[in-house]
Structures are given as structure tokens and as C-alpha cells.
Amino acid sequence: MPGPPATPQESTVEPSAAADGSSHPRPLDPRPALVGLAHGSRHADGTASITSLMSVAAAAGEVDAEAAFLDLAAPDLITVASRLVAAGHRRAVVVPLLFTVAFHATVDVPEAVEQAVAETGLELLVSDILGTGPDVEDLVRASMAAAGVEPTTSVLLFAVGSSNPAANDAVHDLAARLSHARPGAVRAAFGTTDPRVPAVLRELGEPVAVVPLFLSPGLLLEPIQRLTADRGWTLAPPLGDLAAPLVLRRYDRARLGAELR
Known about the structure:
Elements: E1 11-13, E2 33-38, H1 46-61, E3 65-69, H2 77-86, E4 91-96, H3 103-120, E5 123-126, H4 134-146, E6 154-159, H5 165-179, E7 186-190, H6 197-201, E8 208-212, H7 222-231, E9 234-235, H8 244-257
Helix pairs in contact: 1-8, 2-3
């Protein structure tokens, strides 16, 4: 199975003008703020979970951190950038809270960043996405252990899925690495593309545990919740606050690489 695709290089978008059109300098922000930019969901708990994640990251990293959303939820990136400018920030690092390089990472995020810079004048540096690399593998293993998944239990790694085959291959590769050195198999299934859950379940022997590659609750998880409840299977929760160290790692790598102290 091919390895995960390379993530986009970190990039900086310079502001064209101050948000208020003023020439008066703002107070120097000691460190750039952190914005976790998630896709967004109509699920009632989706926004709260991402907000909680960013609160944990803010406390752990001693940095001003906020959540923003590309779609389906508020606040958007322009709103968050405006708040940061009003609070005296001139720079922020945007961490896309995404696991694969798909349409959201390659199109939606750059467009949202460009619009926020144009509207607010805030300098925005875009970090790497969360990805599916070794630290995400470690995070998923920690989630499995916390949920009480036994080494002999088969695991269905459930992800959203993409129209980009390379993005799906990255999830399959993650599942293959999670299978290493454990008796129970790990297979990936997707909510929006093949292979779907029923097809993958036919390959797995019971008992089965389901581990979502999600940061927060979402509508795609509701059928999975019903399935696992009906069959008495283990369902790990979305990764949520456990991902705070990853978010801070992407933030630090971006700002230190750009010498934003």
C-alpha cells in the first residue's frame, strides 16, 4: 500500500493593509496566536469539541488559541482573525485540523486564509495538516488503549473519505501500520467512499472495535454509534482533546521554521 502523500509546505500570507485602514501601529504580540481551522459540522457537539481541543492547546502551550471553521459552523476564519487583530495580534499560525491532503486542505484552507488576510490585515502562517504520520499513529494507539481495545480485537478505522485516492491511501497505510505487531487486524473504512463499513466488516472477525479518525462528533458517526451499540462492540470516542499535543507540534514547527518567536 503506498505511503501517505506529502503534506503541503507551510506558507505565509502577508496582509495587504491593516484591517481598520489605520497607520497607527498595534502593540507587538509576543507570540503569534494559534487558530485551529476545522471543517465544521452540523452535529450539535461538533463545535464544542473543537473549541475544547483549542482550549486545551491554549493552556498547554501558553498561547492565545481559537477555533475556526471552514463550513457548517461558526465562527469562520475572518471572524476569528478580526478578534485577534482587535486583541493586538499581528500574526497567527493556522493549523488545519485535517488528517489527509484532500480538497479541504488544498483548496478550502488557502481560500479561507487569503480572504481572512484581505479582510483583517492579520498575517497568517499556515502549518502542515495533522496528517497520518507516526505521531497520529501514536495518538490512535493511545485512543485504542484508552477505550480498552484488546490486542486480539479486530479494529475498523473509520474515516470520512475523499474523492482523492491518495488521501484514502494514506488512511489505508495508517491502518496497516496500526496492524503491525498486534494479532487483531486493523482495516480502514470510509463514510463517503468505498470501502464502506459493511464491506470491511465482512473481512474482520468478531469481536470488532471501531476507532474513528475524527476529532469531534459528526453526523457520519451516528450510524456507527447505533451499529456498535446494537452489537455490543467497543467504540472509541473521537480523538478530541487528545490531539492537543499534535496541534501544538504543528504550531511550533511552523512558527519556528518561519522564525516567528
